[in-house]
Design goal:
14% of the residues lie in helices and 20% in strands. The protein is an alpha/beta fold. Helix 3 crosses helix 4.
């Protein structure tokens, strides 16, 4: 009996647990205050063009939130699990993903830790009743799996776990102690996001918003990930901090490229904003909305991938605080509608340099890189 109890104790210590979202150093590009940064000279025309196409993927004023992501925290005692290419070697993104130390002649997806009780994006609440799972429908979901172990962030896209082995189309790591150069993990290299970005540090969760609400005019302290439909993004190009683009197809000269950083206008009435779900979220929803709006004014949001729901948050399944506390429960308080009413034209585009032509010729950044400035604009 004692042996069983000891086993349960060890298992519990290795299971997925609540913790803060992973962060890069303060001078990383994601943590840069862009409230006074110069604007793209074509900002107004670009945003007017985007608005003419329908604005956000879910509608011109439907600034919606997706709550389907999990960020898992693996104890140091968890061993890494082998990864095999989902659908065979030809379907794996290499050299963009995997271990950059492996010669291209012998690609090997790197192994990742797999905490018990974890789950892949979209497999549990709030959209289904069952707990998070490592079994994901890759035909209808991006199936991101995001895991932090120590100072390493493991991210996998189009993921599944079969017979104890991870299947993935792209599995890679980010070193959370490093300030990456403008080309991130490599110029023309993708990641689990089309722009080549990390995912987990650009999400937001209930714990972050709760903490920000305890401070006067609090914000999240980092930029937020956002997505648009690929037909509304500039074809064949991206701007830093992106280093890749998914499948953009808009050929208009005013199209917005992958990697664009949008900043909410300083004139936007944050202090009086009424949440789109105020009717059922009440004053708590207004307070949560204002945290996000202040964040968007100071740090902005970066265009990371293609899709129809602009913003992405972490599920509250593993967090200490819950969305219901903040008046934005996606199941009972229509929390996805928190920022309804905010339009594309309420933003402006920060200057990020000239668009870079997309070639898909990934040039990995050396693992031992040293970069001091952190920005190229």
């Amino acid at each position: 009996m004692r042996a069983f109890a000891a086993f349960v104790s060890v298992f519990a210590s290795l299971a997925a647990t609540a913790a803060s979202l992973p962060e890069f150093p303060p001078n990383a590009v994601w943590n840069r205050d862009v409230s006074q940064a110069p604007l793209n000279p074509n900002s107004t025309a670009m945003l007017n063009h985007l608005q003419s196409l329908g604005g956000w993927g879910s509608g011109a004023t439907s600034f919606q939130i997706d709550f389907s992501f999990y960020v898992l925290h693996a104890a140091n005692g968890i061993a890494t699990t082998p990864v095999t290419p989902l659908g065979g070697a030809d379907s794996y993104y290499y050299p963009d993903c995997g271990d950059f130390h492996t010669p291209p002649q012998a690609p090997e997806p790197l192994p990742i830790p797999l905490p018990p009780g974890g789950g892949i994006e979209g497999t549990g609440p709030p959209y289904v009743v069952s707990p998070p799972s490592y079994t994901c429908d890759n035909n209808h979901n991006d199936c991101h799996m995001l895991i932090v172990q120590g100072n390493t962030l493991y991210e996998s896209g189009n993921s599944n776990v079969v017979n104890g082995q991870v299947q993935s189309e792209c599995a890679l790591t980010w070193d959370l102690t490093k300030v990456y150069p403008p080309q991130g993990r490599g110029e023309q290299c993708t990641s689990t996001d089309g722009a080549g970005f990390p995912v987990a540090p650009l999400l937001f969760n209930a714990d972050e918003i709760y903490t920000a609400e305890q401070k006067q005019n609090g914000d999240l302290g980092h930029a937020i990930r956002f997505i648009l439909p690929n037909p509304r993004m500039m074809k064949g190009a991206y701007v830093h901090p992106a280093n890749h683009a998914g499948a953009p197809s808009d050929t208009n000269s005013n199209a917005v490229p992958y990697g664009s950083r949008l900043r909410l206008k300083a004139s936007f009435p944050v202090s009086t904003f009424v949440a789109g779900n105020h009717a059922d979220g009440g004053n708590a929803a207004d307070a949560a909305a204002r945290v996000l709006l202040r964040t968007l004014q100071k740090y902005g949001m970066v265009l990371a991938d293609g899709g129809n729901v602009p913003l992405t948050a972490e599920s509250d399944y593993y967090t200490t605080h819950k969305w219901s506390e903040l008046g934005m429960d996606p199941t009972t308080q229509t929390g996805a509608q928190l920022l309804f009413g905010v339009q594309v034209t309420d933003f402006e585009i920060v200057y990020s340099g000239d668009p870079i032509t997309l070639t898909y010729n990934c040039a990995p950044t050396p693992a031992d890189f040293i970069f001091i400035d952190g920005f190229d604009y």
